[in-house]
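W.,

You were right to be curious about this one. When I first looked at the sequence I had no strong expectations either way, so I just let the prediction run and decided to look at it fresh. Below is the sequence, 339 residues in total, followed by the output.
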Amino acid sequence: MTSTKQGRPPRILSGIQPSGQLHIGNYLGALKQWVELQTQYDSFYCIVDLHAITVQQDPAALREGTRRNAGLYLACGLDPQHSTVFVQSHVPEHSELAWILGTFTPMGWLNRMTQFKDKTSKMQTESIGSGLYNYPILMAADILLYQADLVPVGDDQRQHLELTRDLAQRFNSIYGDTFTIPQTFTPKAGARVMGLDNPTAKMSKSESSDLHAINLLDTPDRIKKKMMRAVTDSGSEIRFSDLDERAGVNNLLTIYQAFTGESAEVIENHFVGKGYGDLKKAVAEVTVEGLRPIQERYQALTGEGGYIDEVLKRGAERAREVAHKTLRSVQERVGFLLP
């Protein structure tokens, strides 16, 4: 780890929306990596509730999901001594910087965002909110506000990070060196977990089918039931494969490997002569055991009255220290009369 030009360790930032339930794809593909990185970087991890309301949310469910996500962040291993854990809306600088950046963002740039096109392809035009269209600008504000050096993003967010870089460079060219130009961060390969009911699509919190994902707070019985109904294929061989027709089996083996840490060779040898029923049972067992300490820690944390809220309060205070400094610099440079 090297220091940045600001004389601090490289800063990393990421977040997950509080809509829907966090699942094993979130854990194995992101949260587990965050935990491993938190002592190596100046780490900021948020619950991005402002992003969540780009589609209508039930207010009570949104509040519940925000606190639940915070508890699961901590239960998965994020340590407030090493990571700044906070709620996006607790730091109003996000919204103000997003507005300022929006005035510098050409509509042509936003019109190229493929995720907006994908999300709205089945929506009626009159039901599409402008927040969904401007989503990439708010994401840019999230990143630039903290002068993040590194941003771990999946393939679906890479275009948004490129927009963030373009916006930072555009602003810097007009007003001078203001924003750090963030770099895409690719940690060691995390597990890419696919849907149990559709193993050709990434596991998602937004899917309505109850059999799509294993949620982090699912009971052991629920995990076993979902796993036993997971899609496989018409064959019988249990081996890793990149073929679409073997996607179901490959997904189960990927989950098994992520929880056990065993090599592909060891895993394939373990299942020689066994059937898909044996595979599903084994994956269910390692998943239950892998989630057990997280669930136990979550129950302990939520049983400590006020602890999660206190962590979020301290996290927001720390985040605002950094965010306010950046925003004030931006306000000054664009010509606002500061109080």
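Here's what jumped out at me. Strands lie at 11-16, 42-47, 83-87, 150-152, 183-185. And, maybe more interesting for your project: The radius of gyration is 21 Å.

Coffee later to discuss?

I.
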